[in-house]
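Dear support,

I submitted the protein below through the web form. The confirmation email said the job was done, but the results page showed an empty box. After a refresh the structure appeared. I'm attaching both so you can tell me whether what I see now is the final result or a partial one.
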Amino acid sequence: MRNLFQRNWYTEVRRSEDGLLKGKTSYIDTYREAVAHLSVDINSFIIQEALWEEQRSSEPINARTLQVTPLCGSKAYFSSGPVLKEAGAFLKDPLAVALFSETVKGIIQAETFLLSERGFASEKDYEHKWMEFYSGSCRYFSSLDRITKTWFDHVGESKREGNLFVRFKTQSLFHLGKSRYLLTGNLSDSFHEVNVRLKLNGVAVEEADGVLLRTPDLVCREAAALLTNLHGINLRGVAKKELAGLLGKGQGCVHVIDLVNDCAQILELFGIGQKTFS
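What the results page shows now:
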């Protein structure tokens, strides 16, 4: 087994002393290194500043830092997809969309520790909002009649200072010989730990499994069994919407879906299906 390619993501959201949240996602892979930064108002989540840093690329470039003006004034919250695409077009780099998207996700997760700033009267008020908004969207919120733990039972408390949320993700591609490959994906953050493993014959899935090591409730872990639905699927170029359908949609886990999609992207990035290895 030979490692061919790997990539790593690190998202961090911190409370600063100037009434802002500082969020960033650092990314490094075999060919590239970049960081997306967002500074947002702690009450409104309106983006005050957006920066794109690029340190290394397979293309000959100088290290650079750019102001991403299309993002300023927009909200770092749900439904930010269109403005994130504008940022990608502004920078002429699809990776920027992914990194700023991860940063927005981190800011949304950090809301757990910003109840008063975000206008919530209590932990129960926050949980009720999410139960209404997210109803039917994942295994946890589709199984509220079966869960044994509330969100704050899992989190522990709603008080954090300084560092509010962190997330690590990594994906690796291994060559197993001839036209067979192994893709692995791992996620560990302030609330979850998830792992997926995909064994491929060419670009078709031979085996797929995974485990959810740390989750808001035991019911979430049932979503791992849905990975067997990927058997026989051509993974190269598959749309995320199709992956979500195969992995259960609202009965699945959004983090499992994201990890499988991250792994599938590597086939495009590394050219599997076009290259051969001895």
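Response: this is the final, complete result; the empty box was a page-load delay. The chain has a mean pLDDT of 94.
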